[in-house]
Specification:
By secondary structure, the chain is mainly α. It has 2 domains: 155 residues, no CATH class; 103 residues, no CATH class. The chain is 62% helix and 5% strand. The chain contains 14 helices and 4 strands. The strands form 2 sheets. The chain has a two-stranded antiparallel ribbon with strand order 1-2. Strands 3-4 form a two-stranded antiparallel ribbon. Strand 3 and strand 4 form a beta hairpin. The longest helix has 26 residues. It is flat. The two termini are 48 Å apart. It comes from Paenibacillus xylanexedens. This is SbsC C-terminal domain-containing protein. Keywords: Signal.
């Protein structure tokens, strides 16, 4: 049977209250135990966090400790510790990325990936069985312990934070950070782009952009508002990427017309729009379609003029 959060705390309070023979459990005693346990968890995590500045092992311990104890703290503490863990991982990520960007490591991973088959998904268990180089193997194991996952693009292998692991924290953090975790997990589970191309559907691209816009509207003062804005690529939404353009380059006289798939995705998003939904992105798609329908789907200066202020509004800081 899986106990809900209050039930767990109640049992903990009873257990602590009964440690002394003949102890009488009063309401204040029952409430004090969870508070003390919460403080103890918070302070232990802070100890690991302080040590993590100099010790990779302490960061590994901090991550595992939070995963196993976050259900014992209040939402404020849970939120703060979750954000602190992400901050620590981001610092370590830069160092890990640098360590992986060596010919020795890249070659070891590439050879292992080739042996496994490039169509196979990269997993630590498969790679660790295949890799023979001890240094590369150690580096890969460390990345796994730190909560990173391995991605590849343009022939290079690099680490990213595995935000799917953060899903476990959602019941114990505030609403804005739970929404943030959803956004980041979606991206880490399936990157938006690779090798200069958009590798998700246009429908999915629009959905992700709308989720980020909704976050910015619902939580303008969140600690992670800037991070979400950084990940909202308006240019992808309205122009596509180098290898996945929203408008065809190859028509006569260099007249660029919108890819029918993109137009259908715009139309589908607008059809699904709930009444009274505030969305600059949906408003912009609607305006663009009106102009396209009057100009044989051509990318005109008028379309660019519609997009420009939206680019400025969501410009990365």
């Amino acid at each position: 049977m899986r106990w809900k959060h209050p039930a767990k705390l109640g049992l903990l309070a009873m257990a602590l209250g009964c440690t002394a023979i003949g102890a009488i459990i009063t309401p204040s005693t029952a409430l004090a135990a969870p508070v003390l346990a919460s403080k103890a968890v918070y302070h232990q995590f802070q100890t690991y966090r302080t040590e993590a500045v100099k010790s990779t092992e302490s960061l590994v311990k901090a991550r595992k400790y939070l995963m196993n104890h976050i259900d014992r703290v209040d939402p404020w503490q849970g939120t703060l510790m979750t954000l602190q863990l992400e901050n620590m991982q981001n610092v370590k990520l830069a160092d890990m990325d640098y360590q992986m960007y060596t010919e020795q490591f890249q070659q070891a991973i590439s050879q292992a990936h080739e042996q496994l088959g490039y169509e196979q998904k990269l997993t630590y268990s498969r790679l660790l069985k295949e890799i023979k180089d001890p240094t590369a193997k150690k580096r890969l194991q460390e990345a796994s312990d730190l909560g990173f996952k391995l991605e590849t693009s343009e022939g290079l292998y690099y680490p990213i934070i595995n935000y799917e692991i953060y899903q476990k924290f959602k019941p114990f953090v505030k609403a804005d950070i739970a929404a943030y975790i959803n956004i980041m997990a979606t991206e880490s589970n399936q990157m938006t782009t690779s090798d200069g191309g958009i590798i998700i559907s246009w429908n999915e691209l629009i959905q992700r952009a709308l989720e980020k816009e909704a976050f910015l509207n619902n939580f303008p003062n969140s600690n992670r508002t800037s991070a979400v804005k950084q990940g909202l690529f308006v240019d992808y939404l309205f122009y596509g990427s180098d290898n996945t353009p929203a408008y065809d380059w190859y028509t006569d006289e260099e007249i660029r017309t919108m890819d029918p798939e993109v137009k259908q995705a715009y139309e589908k998003a607008l059809a699904k729009r709930e009444p009274n939904t505030e969305s600059v992105l949906l408003d912009t798609m609607e305006k663009i379609l009106l102009v396209l329908n009057q100009n044989n789907d051509e990318l005109t200066p008028e379309v660019r003029a519609i997009i420009e202020p939206v680019q400025q509004q969501f410009a990365r800081e």
